[in-house]
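Researcher: Here's my situation. A collaborator sent me these components and asked whether they could plausibly form a single complex. I don't have experimental data yet, so a predicted model of the whole assembly would be a useful starting point for our discussion.
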Amino acid sequence: MTTTVRENALKCRDAAAQIAELPEDAKNALLHAMAEALEAGTTDLLAANARDMQGARDKGISEAMLDRLALDESRVAGIANALREIAAMPDPVGQVTRRIQSDKGFSIERVRVPLGVVAMIYEARPNVTADAAALCIKAGNGVILRGGSEAVNSNQAIARCLRGALRDAGLSEHALMLLDDLSREAMLELMQLSDIVDLIIPRGGEGLIRFVTENARVPVIKHYKGVCHLYVDASADLDAALDILIDGKTTRPSACNSLETLLVHRDIADAFLPRAAAALVERGVELLGDEASRQRVPTMAAATDDDYATEFLALKLSVAVVEDIDAAIAHIRHYGSDHTEVIATRDEAIANRFVHALRSAVVMVNTSSRFSDGGELGLGAEIGISTTRLHAYGPMGAESLTIERFVLRGNGQVRHGRGSAAAGSEA
Amino acid sequence: MTTTVRENALKCRDAAAQIAELPEDAKNALLHAMAEALEAGTTDLLAANARDMQGARDKGISEAMLDRLALDESRVAGIANALREIAAMPDPVGQVTRRIQSDKGFSIERVRVPLGVVAMIYEARPNVTADAAALCIKAGNGVILRGGSEAVNSNQAIARCLRGALRDAGLSEHALMLLDDLSREAMLELMQLSDIVDLIIPRGGEGLIRFVTENARVPVIKHYKGVCHLYVDASADLDAALDILIDGKTTRPSACNSLETLLVHRDIADAFLPRAAAALVERGVELLGDEASRQRVPTMAAATDDDYATEFLALKLSVAVVEDIDAAIAHIRHYGSDHTEVIATRDEAIANRFVHALRSAVVMVNTSSRFSDGGELGLGAEIGISTTRLHAYGPMGAESLTIERFVLRGNGQVRHGRGSAAAGSEA
């Protein structure tokens, strides 16, 4: 096993060098071929997914998790179309992001180049397998994926389609490695291969994130939980706030950009909370509130301190009434996960205060947290939503899988010439 | 001790929140005040430096290291002026790097915000203390510095001046922490404070880099060694190549952007090597070569395999004759450190091949490696040169100490509305 992980990673790195050299047209043709291979393989894919679903049901997995795992024809078509959308996005590789003419006479360019080899360890959601592979290839990288055990059959079926497209294009299929069977020891080895792997993205719950951050020597960008907040200020348009609340909580509770906590300014709590609670309960949402919320909605259960820090990923919402915007900000700073926060307000000064005071990756004024998504934010798709304050923060598209470097072109410029030596504090 | 590191880091984080809020003018005024405080403190600073120099001499430290450590009036003026140059650079904080109007009617902005708290562990070179502090503050961050034991008196004197300027501006001096006395255990604690510290930059030799990368839970950007290469192709202008070689090796051998290895195409080895060797030896450079080099320059000592991977930081150069550009690229890939590589050539196709084939942070055509420096590349100054392929790669200025996040402003937009539920593979 020991040699296998390293050998596989080396194969991926060699294959990545091929991908890095591909012109834009060839990469996009490859992504289209991958989309077609997925559609052509729908029957196999759904059969593989059915085995995963059965296994998950046997294990008694929650409805939210089953929903994340489930594929049908329209979801497969959605996955294929996401690859076509990625193909349609601009190629980040080779982009010159800045061009400076030095006063010494040489030119300086900042040029985007691929990262190299990207590893991702993730849980459930088979579409992530295709999105991650496609984004890495678009950005000229090799990719090593280690999916969750629940989705193993689905992920393998997807990877077979995508690797087939690589082979058909005359490329090494090792540019996409699905190492689903990696043991804990082998994963440890993978995340310490800092001479081969350039980035590791753990995408999942607390246990996975801690396992990776505590053990990785490869740079890590976390896609950690989304404890997303909606704060309804006294200045809010309450109809709009209710729309944002319902959309944020009920349209896909298993997504990380769904709302987990509602904070309501006390001055509009009487007007808003009972109405909001009725609308949510009607849609099957379980509410957990503080004292002040339960005074307004007596049917609400009591929230514990832990509830406010929990990503339910289900039809469940924690609720609190706050004194003012400062209390809302303090609550979010204390319990939040730096993912996505929303304020409903018609007061621009209040909105700006909320935006500036919070350090979350995505901060929104009067829109649904469900827009916190690479596709919605113009990235085409996303490999994840970074909650690490480095390199990328928030939804990560293909550009986030590249790095800018410096290219200088001159005609013999030197810093000091033959006679002189350096002085002062220069580097 | 255990509580002290965490407590200090928390103080720095609180102070950083003040710095993050400072308007551009206030930050620049602060940087000017810091420059003046350094100049006003020159006498104390030189006295402190003299103690460090004495201690270093007593320990028998190399000439290259003594040169890195030494301050005089002109170097202090240089440090102060570097702060003024940083003040004159554009403020990265608040910059809107992209603005998109969503087809759903809300606006999306990518906005630069400070990282938070930046820690740096570094060796020697007291000017780094001032540069790092100033760049972090320019970018709205707090900074925790742990300098080398050789420079402890100089660093403390510099930090006293800079913290005085913070106090005089009515700010908390904790925005700049110099924790010079941190034990190994305390450093371990610092680099695991992932809830407080946002980035750690180790800048130094192999031992330090390994210590940090093996133990940090905070994200790491390495400033590792610069094994910089000059490849002189058969197509080179040999006069220009000689200028680049002399500048790169002799003007400041203790700098990481100095050349460590010369690779010469065999077709011009007879014409170039004896001439280059004479010019270098005349300037005190010791040469270590392979068989083919020593045939051309018999006085040259034999290079070991290790020599080609060594950052000498001294008047010492390893030399090899190569078959062609492919052999040069293979050599650099094998022995290089991803820092800076130079090709001397008049053939554009050869130049492009070199640029594309190498993954180093800075790749140059016909210019001196000594330009691989934040100041020279338009960044004003640098906190280090990243050899980590993430976030920043190559010289890092103030912008590299910020991160882009997403701000959305709408008027009630939702993704699905009240009735519908999500479909397909969406997040």
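Model: Some features of this prediction you could bring to your collaborator: The two ends of chain A are 45 Å apart (CA to CA). Chain A touches chain B through 95 residues (CB under 8 Å).
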